[in-house]
Specification:
The chain is of the alpha+beta class. It has helices at about 5-10, 25, 35, 40-45, 145, 175-180, 195-200, 225-230, 280-285, 395-400, and strands at about 80, 90-95, 115, 130-135, 140, 150-160, 185-195, 210-215, 220-225, 235-240, 240-245, 255, 270-275, 305-310, 320-330, 335-345, 350, 355, 365-375, 380-385, 425, 435. The protein contains 10 helices and 22 strands. The structure holds the ligand Nc1nc2c(c(=O)[nH]1)N[C@H]1C(S)=C(S)[C@@H](COP(=O)(O)O)O[C@H]1N2 and molybdenum atom (MO).
Length: about 450
């Protein structure tokens, strides 16, 4: 069987766009010879049913199951990358390895973390959350008392405003999806709606904002408009079914679905209702993108519509010609993802990817599309739309909007935030994938 039999197996299907993209529904109707298309000669020549002998691990009983499951030792290389592995007294960032994961939520051990003065070692029995300021009745909660309120669960992504900042580089960095986009993760969060607690405390008419403060040594704090607090803000205590990870805010954090990661204050100890924002350093400086002419946004709350391809992506070698599924992640602060288009020729032609159900608002949506790699050069790109009608800007559009200043690195890296343009992966003839601008 020759390599080219893989191409013949899709003969009857009409491509959905140039360079090997197909419509997933037509593709999955049946009759597609996948085994042939995924390098059939390897499957049929080196493996057959008779060759299934007992492997060494089948010869004796297995190991005892422990009280808390650890993943297979063969998965130990699936890890976050860390900017400050020894926890020196400065900011630390751990990035999610999106190219090693699939689906729509991030395992707790691989959720990204940004901590500016280290996760505190909080005793949950001693921890308190206070709600005070412009309220009729200040309240103070223990974890136990909060747990007796009506609880809710929802999927939501959290993304740092600085995620994708390497994309501001004037030249494409030789980086993988984890380095470029690893500061976003998605989880199912459970907790108490903030509106439930605020209504109980009684909101004074003069209250317009709240200041949320963490109990880390830095006491990171951010101002949040009361409208968001009463909309879908949550005091989250559980992450994917278990208590929050220490790095993600144990035992409680503020969750503001779709809003800038930094506002999702971890190790939350205080919510003060006020009539104007605090203008803390994070809202007034760090996370206020600079615009052409030297002005800056006053506030930038939304993590706007974005998508990127996780498979294939740099570090994942395409071992042979033939069928591959292109898949990736899309999300938007404005609600649900409505459409993702994928290109295999650097944006010349586009095909619509399938969105994996359920498509939830302000959460990761997984998109998938069949791709037949003929072994020639290809540049893979995705572009997402959300239900509010927003679309990812092109790279040149967003770079122009932020101006040249956004592209000159300072001591903190690239000064601008909130890059949501497309990402391009170039596949070369040997099957290697590389980050490029297209
Ligand atoms: N108290 C406190 N809250 C914090 C931070 C912090 O350092 N201290 N980091 C913020 C930043 S910059 C981001 S992007 C998000 C990241 O959330 P995660 O670490 O759970 O992914 O938490 C935010 N909340
Ligand atoms: Mo952040």
């Amino acid at each position: 069987m020759s390599k080219h039999s893989s191409i013949d197996s899709f003969r009857d299907l009409r491509p959905a766009a140039a360079n090997g993209l197909y419509d997933r529904r037509a593709f999955l109707k049946g009759g597609t010879a996948f085994a042939t298309a995924i390098g059939g000669y390897t499957l049929s020549e080196t493996l057959n049913a008779q060759s299934l002998v007992d492997d060494p691990w089948s010869a004796s009983a297995g190991t005892p199951t422990g009280p808390y499951e650890a993943r297979s030792r063969f998965e130990n290389s699936v890890v976050r990358t860390m900017t400050n592995p020894n926890g020196e007294p400065r900011s630390q960032q751990s990035r999610t390895p999106h190219h090693m994961l699939d689906g729509t939520f991030t395992p707790n051990g691989l959720h990204f973390v940004i901590s500016r003065s280290g996760p505190p070692d909080i005793d949950p029995d001693q921890h308190r959350l206070a709600i005070h300021g412009l309220v009729k009745q200040p309240l103070i909660f223990t974890l136990d008392s909060l747990m007796r309120y009506p609880m809710v669960s929802r999927m939501a992504f959290v993304e740092c405003g600085g995620n994708s900042a390497p994309m501001w580089s004037p030249e494409p960095l030789d980086a993988n999806v984890q380095a470029l986009h690893g500061l976003v993760s998605s989880a199912e969060w459970s907790g108490v709606m903030l509106s439930t607690l605020l209504e109980e405390a009684g909101i004074e008419p003069s209250a317009k904002w709240l200041i949320a403060e963490g109990s880390d040594s830095l006491a990171l704090h951010r101002s949040v408009p009361l409208s968001k607090a009463l909309d879908d803000a949550m005091i989250a205590m559980y992450q994917n079914g278990e208590r929050l990870m220490p790095g993600n805010g144990y035992p409680m954090r503020l969750l503001l679905p779709g809003w800038e990661g930094n506002m999702n204050v971890k190790w939350l100890r205080r919510i003060e209702l006020v009539d104007q924002p605090a203008m803390s350093i994070y809202e007034a400086r760090t996370y206020a993108p600079i615009l052409p002419g030297g002005k800056a946004y006053q506030f930038y709350f939304l993590q706007e519509v974005k998508s990127f391809i996780t498979h294939p992506s740099p570090g994942l070698l395409l071992s042979d010609h033939g069928f591959y599924e292109i898949s990736g992640i899309a999300y938007s602060a404005n609600g649900r993802i409505s459409k993702v288009m994928v290109s295999a020729d650097g944006g010349e032609s586009w095909a619509e990817a399938e969105l994996q159900a359920p498509v939830l608002p302000k959460a990761f949506t997984r998109f998938r599309i069949p791709w037949q790699w003929d072994g020639g050069p290809a540049v893979l790109q995705s572009r997402a739309w959300d239900e509010a009608g927003y679309v990812q800007p092109t790279r040149s559009e967003i770079v122009a909007a932020r101006g040249e200043a956004s592209r000159v690195p300072n001591v903190n890296g690239f000064p601008s935030q909130h890059y949501n343009g497309p990402t391009s992966w170039q596949v070369n003839q040997t099957g290697e994938v590389k980050h490029v601008y297209a």
